[in-house]
Amino acid sequence: MASLGDIGVSALINIITAFAFLIAFALLRIQPINDRVYFSKWYISGARTSPRHDNIVSRFVNLDCKTYLSFLNWMPQALRMKEPEIIQHAGLDSAAFLRIYLLGLKIFGPAAIVAFLVLIPVNVSGGMLFFFSRELVTRDIDKLSISNVREKSPKLFAHISVMYLFTFWSCYMLYKEYDVVASMRLNFLASKSRRVEQFTVLVKNVPRIPGRSVSNTVDCFFKKNHSTHYLCHQVVYNANKYARVVRKRQKLQNRLDYNRLKFERHPEKPPTRKTGFLGLWGEKVGSIEYYQKKIKELDEKLTTEHHKILNDPKRIMPAAFVSFNSRWGAAVCAQTQQSKNPILWLTDWAPEPRDIYWKNLAIPFVSLSIRKLVISLAVFTLVFFYIIPIAFVQSLANLEGLEKVVPFLRPVIELNFIKSFLQGFLPGLALKIFLWLLPGILMTMSKIEGHVAFSVLETSTASKYYFFMLVNVFLGSIATGTAIEQLQSFLHESPTQIPRTIGVAIPMKATFFITYIMVDGWAGMAGEILRLKPLIMFHLKSMLLVKTDRDKTKAMNPKSIDFPEAIPSLQLYFLMGAVYAVVTPVLLPFILIFFAFAFFVYRHQVINVYNQRYESAAAFWPHVHTRIVASLMISQLLLMGLLSTKKAVNSTPLLIVLPVLTLTFHKYCKSRFEPAFRKYPLEEAVEKDAQDEGSEPTVDIIPYMCEAYLHPVLRSIEEFELFELGIDNNQSHIPNQQLPTKPVSGSHSPISEQENKGSPKMQQHVEVAVEQHQTAHTCHHKKSTLNMDVTHY
Amino acid sequence: MASLGDIGVSALINIITAFAFLIAFALLRIQPINDRVYFSKWYISGARTSPRHDNIVSRFVNLDCKTYLSFLNWMPQALRMKEPEIIQHAGLDSAAFLRIYLLGLKIFGPAAIVAFLVLIPVNVSGGMLFFFSRELVTRDIDKLSISNVREKSPKLFAHISVMYLFTFWSCYMLYKEYDVVASMRLNFLASKSRRVEQFTVLVKNVPRIPGRSVSNTVDCFFKKNHSTHYLCHQVVYNANKYARVVRKRQKLQNRLDYNRLKFERHPEKPPTRKTGFLGLWGEKVGSIEYYQKKIKELDEKLTTEHHKILNDPKRIMPAAFVSFNSRWGAAVCAQTQQSKNPILWLTDWAPEPRDIYWKNLAIPFVSLSIRKLVISLAVFTLVFFYIIPIAFVQSLANLEGLEKVVPFLRPVIELNFIKSFLQGFLPGLALKIFLWLLPGILMTMSKIEGHVAFSVLETSTASKYYFFMLVNVFLGSIATGTAIEQLQSFLHESPTQIPRTIGVAIPMKATFFITYIMVDGWAGMAGEILRLKPLIMFHLKSMLLVKTDRDKTKAMNPKSIDFPEAIPSLQLYFLMGAVYAVVTPVLLPFILIFFAFAFFVYRHQVINVYNQRYESAAAFWPHVHTRIVASLMISQLLLMGLLSTKKAVNSTPLLIVLPVLTLTFHKYCKSRFEPAFRKYPLEEAVEKDAQDEGSEPTVDIIPYMCEAYLHPVLRSIEEFELFELGIDNNQSHIPNQQLPTKPVSGSHSPISEQENKGSPKMQQHVEVAVEQHQTAHTCHHKKSTLNMDVTHY
Asked: Do B679 and A336 touch (CB under 8 A)?
């Protein structure tokens, strides 16, 4: 058991680290040369451009001394922007993400006050207030926790009461928060201007009818079953191979540009390379000619491939994006069952075009079930047995193994100092690498599962990551032994024994978790704001690759908030808080500081740095809510186990009520709020439709519909680049006024113009477009008669 | 352990009992006097009327000797009707119910063959076939079961293989059956002529808007959000109190009739009664005048109450039946979310009018959640702790208690013979009464839960009953001690220990279950076909009450199939079969005989006796499927436990695969077939709508819509009587041709005519009807323009 003094030392070290990071950040961010790293969001939104200075030095270094004095002013700045502005500026996902931290403060703030006023005095003594006495500070931290209370003591009822209070307070805050976020979501969706995804439904598992194309099948089906609302559709092309070739071409183009630049600088020495593997051997040729030839070859390949995509019926996936002439029609189609066979014609809302994970659009229904099974088994195995391969690698990666691989380093390795360092370092290395790779592995698993949108992929990854953290970080730290050993012992213990085993260990691990909070939370957040890795990458890229403004944008690569990692880590703090609120309340202030600090940091980052790849309108909130409720229930069960070891058996009925109530609360919230996140109410759809009719009745939305859901690589290579970077090109927004430059009908769709700008010429699938426009116009005509009908009614 | 001989004796006794019942049935059913008991379905469908005989004796007794010779010919008769005819005759619910027994035969028939060919030889010896030797028959039954196999024997892999085979075979049959039933359901729904429930949606939780009536709110909402499809609506009146008064009046009327009859027979002695409590004391008055006065009072009360219902806004519940002009419109409304607030405007398909449980239509959303919680806790308590109050009652109802209550019987009770009889009888009495009351208790619980249709109530009761049987009959028979003790020990045992504890006991309990199958299954089924209780009740009623043909129909009271009891009991046999298929295969023939015999019996009853109260189109099938799959998984876990005691530890990985696969199969089936039972595909709706348009485009469906969902008591007392008896009056069927006798618009709706027939005059809620017809006609006009639009398209 660590004393309070030990924790003080640890806190000091971490606070110093955090401050060092903060000062570094404060100094670096005011240097103009780092501007694009720390304010990338503003560059992307176009509010900031490269600063122009006369002085060459002032382009790189900030020479204005005054700004150095106010180096901590980012904190008030981060608070200045109001929530509605943040939603406007960065989207609802970011705003809702920030609210999780606020929720933490709201739940644990009052909890900390009550716990400090009631529980710590009770724990320390017979409830008398010699709480502020000098002795206390140097005492064991356990004196402040429930461990200090004697067995069968009636004082334990104070803990039970506080648990009740805490549960009710948490549920109240969770309910309020869910309510607020749900209405924020509805308002956000309502305030959005017309966007294609509001009118579009993704249809999967279109049946293959022999002798008819997918496009034709879809058209017939929806003309028949949604006759008055169906507008047009876009079939999904399997362009994965094409996209791979395009990516390859981009790489070659990049090398070509680099070589040309080199040649411009040194015209006397034309760059050469060898034709063999990786340019290591083979005939020596001029680089520029070599790459030009390669690119030409690829271009030919691209043309045939493009032709194939448009003409080979096998390249058309049994899925389609079906657009409707009103939100009502789309809402109806997304929520109803279409076909007599429930696994055909599956409809769901189409994700935003930039949110789509194109590769997964063609997975058949049976395969999806199998994939889900396989992946859930794989996740289970990963969580409980990941230690086996790592232990195996560790056994290989020891000093002897190293000496065999690099025998010439033997004298160095044999040095005592280095040897002990390596012995301490090597075994951990495999684990570190694994943990670093973990989010990627989990994301791959989610991709195999077959979700079709990045937002869903990230939510699914977050769930898996949380499960891993819960078992291996939280329970793993409390119980002894590895996860497999725990699993083994849990299988052979009685169900009532499990919470008891863990419950007993909980108060003893408080210091560990306090340290964890300081290292992972405090210092980690300070590291987050410093953005060391992106900073270095940006400067490296700037030096080596950047030639145009466009390249600079690419080099910034601001990324989105890392939801799959950030949300589960954050929820681990909720779990710790809930578990220790009653057991060892001294942990709460550390968590509160984390929540407050992280809130500042992320608010700053959301405003200045991150650029969200997609906007799901806080679709992750139900998961957040569910997992916080689960944390509450875990804490209740563990407290029950802990109290049963205190022989307060008569308290069990009192405590058993809590999980039941919490579960009921969860179920109620689920039916009360979740539909707002899964479905789109018809009332809302009708209102928005009516608004549109009133304000801009003449806009022809068809051209936007038909193109928005084309695979970006089939539009133009530039668009594809932007798509891969996750930058919104506003393609999915339907303007209020028709832009005069964009013709609205026939085969001259806007995309053909964009193509002419500079990227390689690609064939346009004219046939489809023409057919779609014809269909669409018929529908549109019908729509206006329908609308008149409604108005006259 | 019973020997095979013991079981032979038991089988003989039960077979004799069953045969006695069967012969009694065969003799009784051909007596004309019992005709209405054994062929009630035909009387209700109108295919059979009271037989007319010249001879007074032949009206009561069958004198044709020939018919006595062929007294077992009901069996082939029961098979003669083909399945489509049964569906036509008795509905899909009955046909699907019969298929469960066939499914049992299909699953366990081949399983029995394989088990007998493979497992019994393996169990008996080293796999050698001295299986048919004479010795065997007299041996212990355990010699035939897995108990006979030595520990760690490799023969256990034969059992594992058979378990695999059995699981795959069962899943294959289940899948095929689900497929068949799902398509039967779709065909059935498609073949149905127009019925009101196809066009109607039940809307619950209509918000109360101050200053506006519910009717007005509903009208505005649907006119706005389903403008082109909304037709009319029927608000729900709280007529529960009114119905109570009507029931009271019916009782009085009955007594009045009885007294009048008495007076007619004995005009010299007018019947009298006392005015006090139960007619036991007070002033003596003439019975006829007394009842006439009482009825007059009630009639006045009814008039005011009826007036109140129609005029008091508080009597209008926040729910409504909303009708649409097409199945498409109704399907859309039933499947989508209407309001921004997910707990308002909840829509779902309206049940058939005769299926509605009117009392539960007004429960608000929050109350529903609480009710669900309370009832699930209550069911848990009931299942695990029901023994406590019963033990308490038992402790009271002993001989001493009896002697205190009836001291004058003391000498009789003290007789040794009677004493020992009572001692054996009394303690069991409380339990017997409880078990007899149980289905009623569970049904009441389901009603409190707040389901709005009888079909759902019965499914929900069936689930509860199955849970009770699983814990108290199946597990209770295997494990020792009461359910509470088991719960206690399970909580303190490790999760792997539980299947082991039960698994070990399983082979030992085989003889018990064989006896159970013979008593509950064989003899029970024979009792079912005899219908002793309805037979006695019918003759009692015929003697005492019956005056008109209508009364005779009432006295028949054929009832429906008792789904809440029949389905769970039946599924218990699936569970036993699955568990013992591998462990003690000799049990299988007994189950097969049960399934075959029960199939005959129920087929006969379905054709000749039962009159289903409602038609849910096999809506219970997903539950049946789920519980059979659950039985499979239970059997797999128990086999795993059993094998682990055989120290065949290396078989665990092999067996752990099975539950996982079974669960996946279940999930797949759920998503593959369940939507067919919960939703109504738009494709189907459009097809049916188009058919209607083609065949009978001129029918005005509005009058039927508006009345079908009026509380039956508000229509006329006669209808209410029929409703309470569960007899379909075909009110919900929309005829193809308009009947010339029924005026279709204005306030002269068909119901007002029926009212004049003889039941007390009731006020008609003319205002509402008029308003509805006006609304409806507007809509209808719009509908035809819409249809033209579609046809022209």
From this structure: yes
Q: How far is CA B595 from the centre of its chain?
A: 19
pTM confidence score: 0.79
Could you tell me where the DSSP H helices lie in B712-758?
712-715, 717-725, 750-755
The 10 Å Cβ neighbour count of residue A453 is 22
pLDDT digits (tens, 9 = 90+) for B621-643: 999 999 999 999 999 988 888 88
Q: Which residues contact B369 (CB under 8 A, 6 or more apart)?
A: A664, A667, A668, A671
Residue A34 amino acid letter: N
Res B128: pLDDT:
39
d(CA A345, CA A246): 32
pLDDT in tens, B455-470: 899 999 999 999 998 8
Interface predicted TM-score of the whole assembly (ipTM), two decimals: 0.75
**Which residue do the tokens 């029918």 mark?**
B699
Token representation of residue B437? 């009351």
User: Which residues from chain A sit within 8 angstroms of residue B489, using beta carbons?
Assistant: none
- Among A59-63, A127-131, A400-404, B258-262, the range with the most confident prediction by mean pLDDT is B258-262
Q: Rounded distance, CA A338 to CA B431, Å? A: 51
Q: pLDDT, tens digit, for every residue of A544-553? A: 766 556 666 6
Average pLDDT, chain A: 76
Residues 6+ away with beta carbon under 8 Å from B321: B200, B201, B202, B203, B233, B234, B236, B350, B709
Contact A491 B493 (CB under 8 A): no
Which tens digit of pLDDT belongs to each residue from B505-539?
787 778 888 888 888 888 888 888 887 787 888 78
Structure tokens at B542: 């015929």
Instruction: For helices A156-191 and A652-673, give the axis angle rounded to 10 degrees.
Output: 0
pLDDT of residue A351: 85
Total residue length of chain A: 793
pLDDT tens per residue across span B718-748: 666 666 655 555 555 565 544 333 333 333 3
A32-49 core/surface letters (b: 16 or more CB in 10 A; e: else):
eebbbbbbbbbbbeeeee
What sign has the CA pseudo-torsion A596, A600, A601, A602? positive
> ∠ at Cα A241 (A235, A245), nearest 5°?
125
Of B186, B342, B676, the CB nearest to A675: B342
CA A458, CA B95: separation in Å to the nearest integer?
47
Q: How far apart are CA B454 and CA B458, in angstroms?
A: 6
Out of A491, A675, A786, whose CB is closest to B494?
A491
Question: SS3 for A232?
Answer: strand
- Fill in the amino acid letter for A76: P
Angle, CA B750 vertex, CA B747 and CA B755 arms, to 5°: 95
Nearest Cα residue to A790 out of B745, B230, B721: B230
Phi-psi region at A151: left, alpha or beta (left = phi > 0; alpha = psi -120 to 50): beta
Residues 289-348 of B with CB under 8 A from A: 328, 331-332, 335-340, 342-343, 345
Can you give the pLDDT at residue A712? 75
Which amino acid is residue A115, in one-letter code? A
Would you list the DSSP string of A381-411? Answer: HHHHHTHHHHHHHHHHSSHHHHHHH-GGGHH
| Burial label, B739 (beta-carbon count in 10 A; 0-12, 13-18, 19+) | exposed
Q: Choose among A733, A737, A731: nearest CA to A754.
A: A731
Q: Which residue has the tokens 């009298």?
A: B272
- Judging contacts by C-beta atoms under 8 Å, the chain A residues touching residue B494 are 491-495, 497
Asked if A164 contacts A582 with a C-beta cutoff of 8 angstroms, the reply is: no
The identity of residue A467, as a single letter, is: F
CA distance linking residue A32 with residue A165, whole number of Å:
51
